[in-house]
Structure formats: C-alpha cells, structure tokens
C-alpha cells in the first residue's frame, strides 16, 4: 500500500500527524483537481520547513491519492543556476497539505514544521506517475512563493562505486527553469522564512506550539547573568524593593491558600454534572444550554483536573476574561485527551457548532479560501470551546472590525534558555522605559515559565508601526543588558540569555489570552499581575485554575486600562528617537 512506510514509521497514539482513513482521503482530495484516469496531470503541492534533526524543506506534490515527498536540505530556489539535492522520502497522506504543528519529542521527525508554501501544480511533460517512473518531472507551480517552471531529475539511488547511499533513497535534483518568474541571485529561503498559513517562523511555532512542560531552570554558568541582572534591577528599584517584596510575598501566600470560595464553588458546580454527564448547571441563568460531554475526563493527569473543572473555571473567570476575548478572532489549542495526548491548533469553526455561536469570516492568503472563526463574546461560547478540550485560548491583537490594525503590542520574555529570575529585572526595566516615553505596560505571566507585557496603543495603529515600536524597545533592552537579553531567534544562538520576543505582534500572530489555562503541569494560567509583584519573589505556579478566581475577586481586573488607554503614540515615538540619538551621541 502507498502509505505503508508512512504508517510504519509513526505511532498514531503518540504523534499529532494525520492518520486518515480511505474515506477521509477521498473527501480531502475534493479540494483539489482530481487526477485523471490516465494519470495525474494537475493537483496541489505544499512545501514544509521542518526543523527536525537537521533543518530542511519537504516538497510534497500530488500524485494520485497521495503526496510524493522529497527532502530538500537547502530548500527551493528561484535562481536557475541553483541545483538543489532532493531526496525522495515516503509518500504522505493528502491531509498533510494543511499540516503545521510541532511533532512531539520521541516521535519520528520530532520538531516544528511550518507550511512554508502551497499552491497548484501542473505536470507539463506527461503524467506525474510517468515522470516519477522515468526519473524526470517537468512542473509548473502556482503558489505563494514558488511560481513558474521547475524540473525534478533523478540522478541516482546509488552512491560511489555503485553502492547504495546511506539512506537507500533516490536522489534527485530540483531546479528552476528560466522564465518570467526566475529570480537570479536571490535567496528565497532566507528572504521568506515565514509560514503561509500562520505567518510564524519555525522558531516561533516551536516556542508557541510545544505542549510539553517547560524545561527546568538551567544551572551553572547561567547564574552569573542572572546575578548581574538582579543587581541592576535592585539598583533601579532600591527605594521600593522592600515594599514590593512584602506585597509579592503576601500575594503569593494568599494565592496558594485560595482553594475555597469562588474556585471551590465553581469546581463543585462542574463536578455536580458528573452524575448526569449532560448539561452544565451554571451559577446564573444562561441564554443557551451548553452540553458538557464527559465532565469527569481528566485533562491534567498529574493533578486530577478534569474537563468539568476546566468548564467551571471558565464560567467563574468569564467576567474578567471576556473583555479580553470580545470581538477578537480566536485560535484554540485543543487537547481532546488531556495535556499528555495529541494537541492541535484550530482557527476554524468546528462542524456542528450551535447556530447561536458568533462567527466571523476571515481572509487568508488564498482569497478563495477564507476561514470562519469563533468570536467569544459570552460565557456560553466560553463553555462551548472548553467542552471541545480547548485548554488554551489565543487571540490576535486586532478586532474583527479592523484586522489590519492592532490596539496593543506584546513583549514576550522567553526564558527557555534562562530563568524567570533573569527576566524579572528586564521586565522592570521595560516598565520604566515605557513610562519614560508616556506609554503604559500591563504585565502578566505567560502561564508557563515566562512573562508578557502588554502595551496599549489605542485603536487604529497599523501592525507595522506596532511591531516597529516593539522592536525598538527590544533593542533598547538588549543594549541595556546584553549579557542577560537577546533578540536572536535561533535557539542555538541565544546562549543562557532571556529571549526578548517582539514577533508576537503581527497580523497573523496570537498571544495566550489573559487568564487562559496552559497545557502545563499544575493547571497554571496566564495571570495579570501588579507591577509591585514583578520581583524575584513572583511564583508563577501559584496562579492556577483553582486559585485564579479568588485572586481576581480580591485584586480586581488588572487589564482594564488595556482597552481604554489612548496614549499619544506619535509623541512616544518622538521621545524614543530622541533617546536613541542621545545614546548614540553619548
């Protein structure tokens, strides 16, 4: 069978890659031009960028019922002079045309994979089947990055002196033929690194999409950088250190002791549904009944937290969370079998969604293929997505009324290679920089191991301008403390430094919503915090599904200003330029 090797290399219980049935494959192929009886003369193609053991591109072209696949180590080129090695690999199922995920560790091909290009393909010298058999394929791509005439030629499936190659696989050459789309001297791989589906780079998908618990804080030589940053932060905030530490300690102790009141009531409400397993009985009247299936299914195995608990949490936290979700396109990260099982990102409205769910049609890179997405404006919709196993909710910085503009930007302090203690002084410094130019910052925990700072801009700010601002602040932080901070996107190039990720601001970029649970041990959530709490005493593990509702009842909603602020962005930019010129002059 065509997919035997594909199936042999993968365990459907462990990987998130598609394992379609024959019927599913037939339905999927209806999206493309059907293969003719005499062979495949047209269809679809995709190119994945796969950061596995070695980074490479995978060209997948439709041949009959499947996708013939070629690993291209250096990626495709638009320069006719470039001859790129293409090693033929196992055929992939047709459903792979939409696949973009982080393949979990321990699986074949583990690592992030983005949809680097996609489009239509036409075979111009006979059918695809004939070309593969003869070892010569002439093709025309009509994609988002690859366009025009290309050729694949089989060179050999043997190495030197007639012996088989180490892989035992056919070796081909892929090259662009001279035509109007040829671009001599260009480097398409370097110039266009982002996904055509999500807008992410492979590094950004890896940072966003991995569902495993965060790494332990590194030890040894990384401690020196942390100590340096801590000293600088101490000096900058010397007058308020004692007050901040006291408040943070009290807040942490209070958070840890709040497995009662609202959180407990909400949990009991959810667990009460286990007797029937039918409709959640909310603490107040809802406009629409929401059926909760399998409320006793455990989603956090190490903590015993169930789907019923998740639904109860969303109901309890809804008054604080809904303003953050309202009118914003939603990306769900679904874990149908809990945080230890498969997960997938979903923009589109699930089949069979109730008619009362608000949806909005969003444009995609393909004008003929828009996507309908859910808008969470009420508690019923929040419960509906919770019932889907949507543990994490991510939103754009834009509203559906103006998808080209954002009303805030995000500074993400990624500590995968470092620690929270190293990040805290940088977060504090950013707060001071923002205040200095007339902007505000609203800190929140990521829900995993890092920190986010949301900076309101008011409506109508183009994404390009917001990203420019984020980049400026990022560069200033790196210049302020280059031993502790970096904007290097390559993980291997970061060393033991905190990654200042300004790429979370973009028309296709999402950020974990405030109060969203994360697929992390302990049932932690992304929690807004006071600036006085942003110290080395901050305990991210204290903010969980069980403690968050009580904390919000006690501390209030800390993000209100995010939606009402109307800063003078032009004045802030002018001040930033003055600071920059002054720094250079000095």
Topology:
Elements: H1 4-8, H2 22-29, E1 42-51, E2 55-63, E3 66-72, E4 84-93, E5 101-103, E6 111-123, H3 128-134, E7 136-143, E8 147-156, E9 171-176, H4 188-191, H5 202-209, H6 222-236, H7 241-256, H8 261-271, E10 298-300, E11 305-306, H9 307-325, E12 330-334, E13 344-346, E14 359-362, E15 371-374, H10 379-387, E16 390-395, E17 405-414, H11 420-436, E18 442-445, E19 451-462, H12 463-480, E20 485-486, E21 498-501, E22 511-512, H13 548-555, H14 560-564, H15 569-585
Parallel strand pairs: 20-21
Antiparallel strand pairs: 1-2, 1-6, 2-3, 3-4, 4-9, 5-6, 6-7, 7-8, 8-9, 10-11, 12-13, 12-16, 14-15, 16-22, 17-19, 17-21, 18-19
Helix pairs in contact: 6-11, 8-9, 9-10
């Amino acid at each position: 069978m065509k997919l035997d090797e594909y199936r042999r290399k993968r365990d459907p219980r462990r990987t998130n890659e598609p394992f379609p049935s024959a019927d599913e494959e037939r339905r999927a192929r209806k999206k493309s031009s059907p293969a003719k009886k005499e062979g495949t003369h047209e269809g679809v193609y995709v190119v994945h960028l796969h950061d596995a053991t070695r980074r490479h591109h995978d060209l997948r072209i439709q041949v009959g019922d499947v996708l013939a696949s070629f690993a291209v180590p250096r990626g495709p080129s638009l320069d006719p002079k470039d001859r790129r090695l293409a090693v033929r690999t196992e055929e992939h199922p047709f459903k792979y045309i939409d696949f973009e995920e982080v393949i979990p560790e321990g699986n074949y091909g583990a690592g992030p994979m983005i949809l680097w290009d996609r489009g239509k393909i036409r075979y111009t010298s006979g059918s695809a089947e004939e070309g593969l058999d003869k070892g010569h394929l002439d093709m025309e791509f009509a994609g988002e990055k690859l366009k025009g005439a290309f050729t694949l030629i089989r060179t050999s499936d043997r190495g030197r002196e007639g012996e088989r190659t180490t892989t035992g696989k056919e070796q081909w050459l892929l090259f662009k033929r001279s035509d109007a789309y040829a671009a001599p001297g260009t480097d398409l791989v370097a110039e266009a690194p982002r996904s055509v589906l999500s807008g992410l780079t492979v590094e950004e998908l890896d940072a966003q999409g991995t569902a495993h618990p965060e790494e332990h804080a590194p030890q040894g030589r990384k401690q020196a950088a942390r100590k340096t940053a801590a000293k600088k932060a101490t000096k900058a905030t010397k007058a308020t250190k004692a007050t901040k530490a006291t408040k943070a300690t009290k807040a942490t102790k209070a958070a840890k002791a709040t497995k009662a009141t609202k959180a407990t009531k909400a949990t009991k409400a959810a667990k009460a549904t286990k007797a029937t397993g039918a409709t959640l009985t909310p603490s107040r009247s809802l406009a629409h009944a929401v059926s909760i299936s399998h409320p006793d299914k455990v989603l956090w195995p190490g903590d015993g937290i169930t789907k019923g608990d998740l639904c109860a949490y969303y109901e309890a936290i809804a008054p604080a969370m809904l303003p953050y979700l309202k009118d914003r396109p939603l990306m769900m990260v679904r874990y149908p079998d809990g945080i230890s099982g498969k997960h997938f990102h979903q923009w589109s409205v699930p089949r069979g969604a109730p008619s009362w769910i608000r949806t909005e049609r969003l444009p995609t890179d393909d004008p003929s293929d828009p996507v309908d997405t859910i808008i969470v404006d009420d508690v019923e919709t929040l419960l509906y997505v919770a019932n889907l196993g949507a543990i994490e909710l991510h939103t754009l910085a834009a509203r559906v009324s103006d998808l080209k503009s954002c009303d805030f930007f995000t500074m993400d302090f990624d500590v995968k290679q470092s620690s929270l203690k190293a990040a805290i002084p940088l977060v504090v410094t950013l707060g001071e920089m923002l205040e200095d130019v007339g902007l505000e910052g609203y800190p929140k925990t990521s829900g995993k191991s890092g920190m986010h700072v949301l900076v309101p801009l008011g409506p109508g700010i183009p994404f390009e301008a917001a990203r420019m601002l984020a980049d400026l602040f990022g560069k200033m932080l790196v210049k302020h403390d280059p031993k502790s901070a970096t904007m290097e996107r390559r993980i291997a190039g970061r060393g033991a430094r905190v990654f200042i990720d300004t790429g979370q601001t973009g028309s296709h970029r999402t950020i974990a919503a405030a109060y969203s649970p994360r697929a992390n041990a302990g049932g932690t959530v992304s929690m807004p915090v006071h600036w006085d709490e942003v110290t080395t005493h901050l305990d991210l593990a204290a903010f969980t599904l069980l403690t968050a509702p009580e904390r919000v009842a006690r501390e209030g909603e800390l993000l209100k200003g995010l939606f009402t602020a109307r800063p003078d962005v032009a004045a802030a930019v002018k001040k930033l330029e003055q600071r920059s010129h002054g720094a250079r002059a000095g």
